[in-house]
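Worked example

This section walks through a single chain of length 594. The input is the sequence exactly as stored; nothing has been trimmed or padded.
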Amino acid sequence: MKKTVLLISILLGTLFQNYAQHQNLITNVHNRNVTNLSGKWRYLTDVNRERRGYEKDMVPIEKWDIHEYNFPTSDWLYVPGDWNTQRENLFYYDGHVWYRKKFTYDKDENKRLFIYFGAVNYKAEVYLNDILLGKHVGGFTPFNFEIPDSLLQEENSLVVLADNVREFDGVPSFRTGWWNYGGITRDVLLVELNNTFIRDYYVQLDKNSPNTIKGFVQLDGQALSQNVAIEIPELNKTIKGKTNKDGKYEFKEKIANVDYWDVDNPKLYKVKVVSETDTVQDKIGFRTIATEGTDILLNGKPIFLRGISIHEENPLGEGRAWSREHAMVLLNRAKELNCNFVRLAHYPHNEHIYRVADEMGMLVWEELPLFWAIDWESEKAYKIAENMATEMVTRDKNRASIIIWSVANETGDHDARNKFLTGMIEHTRSMDDTRLISAALLKNAKKSTKKVKVVDDYLGKYSDIISINEYFGWYQGLPQIKDSIRWDIQFNKPFLFSETGAGALQGFHGDSLTRWTEDYQSYYFRETIEMCERIPTLRGLSPWILNDFLSPQRVFPYIQDNFLRKGLISDRGEKKEAFYILRDYYKKKAERNR
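Given that input, the structure is written out below as C-alpha cells.
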C-alpha cells in the first residue's frame, strides 16, 4: 500500500510539474470572487533544513506527523504576518518555516481556481495535498498558481515553505538596512474565475495627450478571441473591440470632459472591463505626469513634492504592515505632516496602500529592492529583479497615485551596475511609459569638494528626476555644514532629495549639539530647510523617515535598541519636535505654490 501511495504521488508530481513554472499574474484580485485564507496557520521551523528538496523525495507531508515533524500538535502563526514579531524565539531567525492551512472548498465545476499570495519573504514553495503547485522568488511582489480540479479533495492541505535566508546574488542582497521579516506577510486568497477570464488590463491617459485614453485587455483561457469593452459610465464612454488570437486587445481613443485626478481632487472613475465570459470592475483616476526642464508637471501644472519616506512597518503594533487599516494610519500621518507625496521604500509595499493613496490624493514613489551590495554581474540577480519589476508594474499600473517607478537605492556608479540598472529602466518603461523613472542616487565623491557637491551619476542620463540621498550634518559634521554647501547638478532635470534626516530618541532632550536628542534633530531639519530654499531646481524632498523602524544594524544600547531612530514619529506613535518643523515648512510651501 505504501508503495502504491508513493507511486501515485510521483505520477501526480510529474503530471502537474507544469504548474510549478511561473504563471502570469492575475490583477485586481480583491475585486474578484475570492476566499480569504487569513487567520491561524500551523507552522514548523526547519532549522537544519531537513525538508529541503521535499518534493523530490515525494514523502507525503502528512507522513511527517509520525516522525519529528508534527503539524497537528504544532503552534500557530497568524497569516498575514511575519514570524519575527509573533514568536520571541524567531525574532532573529533567518531560515525555513513550513506553514499549513487546511480548508474545504466547493468549486463550481465550470470555473477555474487559483491560489494567490500577496507576498512571501523571500522564497516560497507551495504544495496542495502533497503536490508542488509552484515556487516563487522575491519577498515583496505577488504571485499565483492554478489549482487543477484533480488535486482538490473534500478537505485540502495547503503547505507553504517560507525561506527568508538572504543570498549575495539575491534581490535584495545579504546586506539591507531593514529587518528581514520572514513568512507569509500578505493576503492569501483563493480566486475562482471563469474558464476564460480577464487576467489583466491597462486603462490610463496617454502621456502625450490628456484627452486620449489608452491601454489593453488580456484574456486567459481557451476562448481567447472575444468581443470586449471598456466602460466608463460617468463619462458616457464605451470602448469596444475584439481580442486577437492571443487574447489581447489594445486600444487608444479620444475621451472628453475628464475630471483629472489630483492631490486636491482625487477623482476616481468606476471602470468596467467586459468580455463575453467575464467582467471586472475597478476605480481608476486619470492624470498626466511629466517633466519639462527642471519642473515636474501634474496635469500640465508645476508641482513641488512635499514628501516623506515610509517603510512597510505596522503603525499599530509590531512587524510588517499589510492591511488597509495600516495603510490608512500611515498615509493619514503623512497627510497630517502636510505631505502630498510619499516615497514607499525600499521595495513594493502591499497593494492596499496604493489604493488608499488613490483615494486620498497622495502621490507615490514605488521602488525595487536593488539596494546597496547587489551582485551586478549576476545573471540570476538580474532575472530576479526583472521579474520583480514585471510583477510590480503588472499589479500597480492602474493606480493614479503612483507617479515614479524607482529602480534602485544608494548604488555605486560603475559599469556593471550601470548596465544592470539601465536594463531595469528599459524593461520598466517597456511595460509602462506613462510614469517617471528615478533612483535614489549618491553624490559624486571624487568630483565633489567640501563645499560643492557634484551630481553627475551615469543613471541621470536615463532618469526623469535626479534624486539624491544626503545626510550632511548627521554622518558628516554638524547641521550648520549645510550653510556652505552648493549643489552642482549636471542635468537639466528636476532635482529631489529622496532622503535626508537625523536620528533622535523620542523624549530625549538636551542642547541642539547633543546627538540623538530631539533638539539636534530639529536643528538638522531647520538647516536642511534653509539649504533646500537655496536650490533653484529642487522640486521636492522625502526625508528619512516617517516612523522609527526595526533595523538589524542599529544596536546602540538605550538609544537605538534595534530601531533606526530617524523617524519623525517614534515606534510607539509619538511625534518628535522635528515633525512639527517639517509640517510647518510644508504648509508654507503649499500656500506659496497655490
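What to look for: The CA atoms of residues 118 and 187 lie 5 Å apart.
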